[in-house]
Design goal:
Blueprint lengths: L8 E4 L1 H8 L4 H5 L5 E5 H17 L4 H10 L2 E4 L1 H4 L3 H7 L8 H10 L3 E2 L12 E2 L1 H8 L2
Parallel strand pairs: 1-2, 1-4, 2-3, 4-5
Helix pairs in contact: 1-3, 1-4, 6-7
């Protein structure tokens, strides 16, 4: 997928979801109406584990961040939808963060790019966009 190809759907990693919840630059991508942002239940659970850390870092209340998370236009896929691709995703991420397997499996299943600021998706067989690159491509 080239930058000139319109982006219609992205698989969002926990780090970009956390950034959006905290009101940082990633939120602008979520607010772009013509892009569907999807993720896994695993990633949402991971985000919830870090909400209090982000709240402390930015002097925000946990409840505010939880509310922000619930308001994000985000489609959450259950594990059974993509679990048939765990082995393939695991092979592609060999030696890297195992927490990324589920999101990669979802991206493979849906044939969509991953949106992450995490280098672990590099050379995983899917297109990966960092937030800074998406902001430039989308001109937002």
């Amino acid at each position: 997928m080239q930058a000139s190809t319109p982006l219609k759907r992205l698989a969002a990693d926990a780090n970009v979801i956390l950034s959006a919840v905290a009101g940082k630059a990633a939120l602008r991508v979520f607010l772009k109406e013509d892009i569907e942002i999807v993720t896994t239940q695993f990633n949402i659970d991971e985000v919830r584990q870090y909400l209090s850390v982000i709240a402390a870092q930015y002097s925000l209340r946990d409840e505010l961040l939880e509310s922000q998370l619930k308001l994000l236009p985000l489609k959450i896929y259950p594990r059974h939808f993509y679990e048939g691709l765990f082995k393939e995703a695991s092979k592609r991420l060999a030696g890297r963060d195992e927490d990324d397997i589920e999101l990669l499996a979802l991206a493979i299943k849906l044939h969509i790019p991953v949106w992450s600021n995490d280098g672990d998706f590099k050379n995983s067989g899917v297109v990966v966009y960092a937030t800074a690159r998406l902001l430039k491509i989308l001109k937002i």
